[in-house]
């Protein structure tokens, strides 16, 4: 059972949606008819056939009422809020929208529990900034209890008078330890808020001056990540299309047995050098999840 729970936890991070849903239903030892009846009791009507199609990947929930059903499924199966919805990505283009750029994920709808936190910070609307380059450098030393994440963001203003950048991190520590913002370069540290119940960390970085449409800014910051259990994965969520994404990893001391890139559309083993380093790049990111996992 413990192994099954670990697999479910992994699938909730990496997807695909249908595999995570199938694993969650199996872990709950629930039939599709049981799930349909539980949804009906919550005032949500979904046919058993539709649930089966979602579970097998033959169709995906996309409309508002379908996404509401997925939210209720998360409650019934005792899953973290929005964990299944985060795997759905953008709605597939149809009809007159077919020539539009790939869609985006609405952060407020994707993680409903974040709404009070973002309102408290008076967070600007999504889409004011486009990220042309996102880079993560992760240093892990399990022997010394050191985990550091260095982030570099190259942003372009898509609106007038954009004066700040908001960054979001999900916490996955069983002891509710939170990251520590160790430093900020090419910008000023604003407010930092944590929501332990919903495992969210939000930081605000202020630009030296407001950006006009088309102007660029570079922000670099570093986090000290909590250490309470062995770390075996790292993932980044993208809510909208972006430019280049690069991930560099450096393992000091004890080396993992293997490192594997894992996201919704691509899984591959990564070469780990004798110096304990590896990396990969995504030239044009799409909404969804990109990351790696490893085994000690």
UniProtKB/TrEMBL annotation:
It comes from the Bacteria. CDD domains: HTH_XRE (cd00093). InterPro entries: Cro/C1-type_HTH. This is XRE family transcriptional regulator.
């Amino acid at each position: 059972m413990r192994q099954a729970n670990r697999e479910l936890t992994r699938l909730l991070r990496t997807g695909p949606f249908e595999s995570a849903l199938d694993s969650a239903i199996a872990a709950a030892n629930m039939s599709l008819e049981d799930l349909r009846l539980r949804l009906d009791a919550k005032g949500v009507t979904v046919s058993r056939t539709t649930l089966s199609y979602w579970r097998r990947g033959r169709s995906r929930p996309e409309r508002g009422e379908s996404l509401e059903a997925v939210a209720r499924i998360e409650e019934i199966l005792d899953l973290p809020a929005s964990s299944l919805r985060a795997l759905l990505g953008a709605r597939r283009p149809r009809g007159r929208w077919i020539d539009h750029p790939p869609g985006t994920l609405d952060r407020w709808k994707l993680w409903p529990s974040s709404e009070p936190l973002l309102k408290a910070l008076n967070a600007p609307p999504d889409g004011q900034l486009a990220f042309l380059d996102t880079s993560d450098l992760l240093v892990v030393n399990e022997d010394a209890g050191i985990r550091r994440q260095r982030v570099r963001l190259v942003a372009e203003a898509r609106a007038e008078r954009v004066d700040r950048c908001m960054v979001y991190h999900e916490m996955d520590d069983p002891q509710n330890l939170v990251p520590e913002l160790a430093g900020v370069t090419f910008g000023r540290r604003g407010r930092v808020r944590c929501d332990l119940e919903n495992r969210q960390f939000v930081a605000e970085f202020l630009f030296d001056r407001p950006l006009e449409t088309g102007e660029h800014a570079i922000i670099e910051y570093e986090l000290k990540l909590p250490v309470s259990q062995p770390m075996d994965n790292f993932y980044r969520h993208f809510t909208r299309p972006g430019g280049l994404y690069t991930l560099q990893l450096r393992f000091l001391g004890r080396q993992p047995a293997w490192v594997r890139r894992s996201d919704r559309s691509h899984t591959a083993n990564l070469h780990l050098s004798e110096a304990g380093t590896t990396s990969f790049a995504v030239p044009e990111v799409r909404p969804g999840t990109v990351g790696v996992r490893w085994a000690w």
